[in-house]
């Protein structure tokens, strides 16, 4: 991953690089996410007659060819002119799901035209009518799930962006999926007053499965199930929100133990071994954020496809070495 990050830094405007790469505060949580994987050691099983591996995973009725999704990240056109549609084309080619950010810089309909299986990420909006408008649009575009980000009651304080004065998209770019019924782009509202009532409201507004993204506490995992949520994403927003928050991987086991819902995790997943460790510790699948943006910046859709194929090859390989035929064979005893 380091090589791609370095190449991305070399091609990107330094302001955009810092936006993509950076985190909140002292970036402790940003670092902790990767360090948590680096700390784990795999305890492989031998002579299991594994044979050909099978990486397929089904999530809410969609079959993925590998248990690795594309995390929602903002502003893909700042990374590469192909933008979100380039990323989606790679997801389609690889046979996985792209979660499209609320802050995508292309219309969801254009992203969907690539044929990719899409989920739509939603910042819960205090204006109920506007929120319902956004949900309808995502549904009509064919999105198969809603990912409701709950770790952002306020926007994270990111020193790198403050230093650059990077507060909004440059001219010629817009959050195309934040248009209201009159076609005007609205700012993404973050609202610390939001509560579980709001989750209930979103649920009442759609039949799509709802995942909550940004859950770290097992108590919230229990509440989520009680509120009819379909799945969870254990995440600290890639260290961009609450600096000092627990590493995503460290939070995973307790969240997975607290609920029967499918639990996904993101933050710091860089290699096939990381995917193996996350699945062994209770995840049904993982999502990848920054590496996708870096691959898009350096190679457009082909770059992102290459990244996904590399992760697939690595995961297939380490499953064989650890004595597992399929993701479901991975259990916590395989990780020390
Ligand atoms: C540049 C950037 C933009 C992001 N934008 C969003 C967003 O719009 N919505 C969201 O829910 N998460 C967003 N995230 C968080 C990612 O979905 C994900 O949680 C995180 O990047 C995973 O960590 P990783 O980058 O270490 O893989 C963003 C992350 C980055 C790096
Ligand atoms: O930068 C982010 O992490 C992010 O989530 C976001 C939220 C709103 C607008 C743009 C990006």
Automatic annotation (TrEMBL):
The cofactors required by this protein are: FMN
Which Gene3D superfamilies does the UniProt entry name for this protein?
Answer: Aldolase class I
Give a yes or no for keyword Flavoprotein in this entry: yes
Residues reported in the UniProt entry to bind FMN? 72-74, 101, 121, 149, 158, 213, 235, 266-270, 289-290
Active-site positions on this chain? 237
Q: Looking at the keywords, is rRNA-binding present?
A: no
Q: Superkingdom of this entry's organism?
A: Bacteria
Cite the binding residues for glyoxylate.
19, 123, 237, 240
Q: Which CDD domains has this protein been placed in? A: alpha_hydroxyacid_oxid_FMN (cd02809)
Q: Which InterPro entries match?
A: Aldolase_TIM, Alpha-hydoxy_acid_DH_FMN, FMN-dep_DH, FMN_HAD, FMN_hydac_DH_AS
Please name the GO terms that the record assigns under molecular function: FMN binding; oxidoreductase activity, acting on CH-OH group of donors
* UniProt signal peptide: none
Entry keyword set: Flavoprotein, FMN, Oxidoreductase
Question: One of this protein's Pfam families, by short name?
Answer: FMN_dh
- Indicate the segments forming the FMN hydroxy acid dehydrogenase domain, all copies: 1-336
| Family that this chain belongs to | Belongs to the FMN-dependent alpha-hydroxy acid dehydrogenase family.
In Swiss-Prot or TrEMBL terms, this protein is called: 4-hydroxymandelate oxidase
Per the UniProt record, the lineage of the source organism begins with: Bacteria, Bacillati, Actinomycetota, Actinomycetes, Micromonosporales
């Amino acid at each position: 991953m380091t090589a791609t990050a370095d190449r991305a830094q070399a091609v990107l405007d330094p302001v955009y690089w810092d936006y993509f790469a950076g985190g909140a505060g002292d970036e402790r949580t940003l670092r902790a996410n990767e360090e948590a994987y680096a700390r784990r050691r795999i305890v492989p099983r031998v002579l299991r007659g594994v044979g050909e591996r099978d990486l397929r995973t089904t999530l809410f009725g969609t079959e993925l060819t590998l248990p690795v999704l594309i995390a929602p990240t903002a502003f893909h056109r700042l990374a590469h002119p192909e933008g979100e549609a380039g990323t989606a084309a790679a997801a389609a080619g690889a046979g996985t799901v792209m979660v499209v950010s609320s802050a995508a810089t292309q219309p969801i309909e254009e992203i969907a035209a690539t044929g990719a299986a899409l989920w739509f990420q939603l910042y819960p909006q205090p204006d109920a009518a506007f929120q319902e408008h956004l949900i309808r649009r995502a549904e009509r575009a064919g999105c198969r799930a809603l990912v409701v980000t709950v770790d952002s009651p306020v926007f994270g304080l990111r020193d790198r962006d403050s230093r650059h004065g990077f507060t909004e998209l440059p001219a010629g770019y817009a959050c195309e999926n934040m248009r209201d019924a009159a076609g005007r782009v609205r700012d993404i509202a973050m609202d610390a007053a939001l509560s579980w009532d709001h989750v209930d409201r979103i649920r009442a507004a759609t039949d799509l499965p709802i995942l909550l993204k940004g859950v770290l506490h097992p108590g919230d995992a229990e509440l989520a199930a009680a509120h009819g949520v379909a799945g969870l994403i254990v995440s600290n927003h890639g260290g961009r929100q609450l600096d000092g928050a627990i590493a995503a991987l460290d939070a995973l086991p307790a969240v997975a133990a607290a609920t029967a819902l499918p639990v996904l995790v993101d933050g710091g997943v860089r290699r096939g071994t990381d995917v193996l460790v996350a699945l062994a510790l209770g995840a049904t699948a993982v999502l990848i954020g920054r590496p996708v943006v870096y691959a898009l910046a350096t190679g457009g859709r082909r770059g992102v496809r290459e990244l996904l194929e590399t992760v697939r090859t690595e995961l297939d390989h380490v499953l064989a070495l650890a004595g597992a035929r399929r993701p479901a064979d991975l259990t916590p005893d395989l990780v020390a």
